[in-house]
Design a protein that fits this description.
Layout lengths: L1 H8 L14 E7 L5 H16 L5 E8 L4 E8 L5 H15 L5 H6 L2 E5 L18 H11 L1 H5 L23 H7 L3 H11 L21
Antiparallel strand pairs: 1-3, 1-4, 2-3
Helix pairs in contact: 2-3
Length: 214
Amino acid sequence: MVLAGAISVLTLPIAQFPDIAPGTVNITAAYTGASAAVTERLLTEPLETQINGVEGMIYMSSSSTANGACLITVTFDIGYDLDIGAVDIQNRVQTAQAQLPEVTQRAGISILKESQDLTMLINLISPNGTFDGVFLGNYAQINLIDPLTRVPGVGDVENFGVLNYSIRVWLDPEKMAGLGVTTQDVVNAVTNQNADVAAGVIGQPPMPGTPMTL
């Protein structure tokens, strides 16, 4: 019997093996520039309140970082359909979005089915030191992330080496009060300076509702 069982293990498809680890669904959101305390109060707590008690959930854990990132991991019962779990969470997140900051709503909230364990780690190196870590991280982001994500069974691929450029603006409350400027005024000014405006086409009539300047 033992010998027959050992031989059959090599011929049985993986689909016939029972699930031994509970499935998880990760919810990620960001409030760029916020501290960990602000992120927890404005992102993590509203999301947790709505997600808590979703069908099939065993427990939930979360983290709020100092760079404004929020990660909530919902663990489901062994064998529970994660497709259904992800849809239920998506519906509850939609309910909570009205309570979240506008910046977070524009950036969007990611909901992914993921395993708690890493399947594989891939390390990129430059043998002769020709390329630095920034280049290698950017190369992986452009050329490797999408193909690896399309591999069957892969839930998500995280690039630990990528460095995204960002700007942190420090505001002086006293000067702002003296000038009558609010925080939203600063946000609007930065947003307007980084807007991509279409140049249009020469010789074409203006779009309806577009003001003309002579």
